[in-house]
Specification:
- There is one protein chain.
- The chain is mostly helical and 115 residues long.
- It folds into two domains: 55 residues, no CATH class; 52 residues.
- It is built from two helices and two strands; from the N terminus they run E-E-H-H.
- Strands 1-2 form a two-stranded antiparallel ribbon.
- It is rod-shaped, with a radius of gyration of 29 Å.
- The model has no long low-confidence stretch (mean pLDDT 79).
- Bound molecules: zinc ion (ZN) (2 copies).
- The site of one zinc ion has 8 residues, from loops.
Length: 115
């Protein structure tokens, strides 16, 4: 069996690697049970052990990859709402400026600053 840390070949049934001293066991990320190194599936819950703890690096361009989905949905819903109102306020700002309505122009700019 191979050591998951240093890939050294150890004899079957060994508890520790004779190369690096690392523990020769595979802990199921699903149920926490210890399985023998090289096991493909957890012998307790059947979880696929071939990719142990392979956590993907966070991709910050995709909030879905690091926030729970419902949270990401919320953020996106909010963001598009803010973008929509930003667009509207900008339109209004332009209109007020064109019409020389200074009072409303200031109001629109205030609203913009809050967004
Ligand atoms: Zn080792
Ligand atoms: Zn398991």
């Amino acid at each position: 069996m191979k050591c998951p840390k240093c890939q050294a070949e150890n004899r079957e049934g060994a508890k520790f690697c004779d190369e690096c001293g690392g523990k020769l066991e595979l802990v199921c990320s699903e149920c926490g049970k210890t399985n023998r190194v090289g096991a493909k599936y957890c012998d307790d819950c059947g979880h696929d052990l071939r990719k142990p703890d392979e956590t993907k690096p966070l991709d910050f361009t995709q909030p879905q990859s690091y926030t729970p989905k419902h949270l990401a949905d919320k953020i996106f819903a909010n963001r598009s709402a803010i973008e929509r109102s930003l667009e509207n306020v900008k339109k209004a700002e332009r209109m007020f400026r064109d019409m020389g309505m200074d009072y409303w122009l200031v109001k629109a700019q205030e609203a913009l600053a809050k967004l």
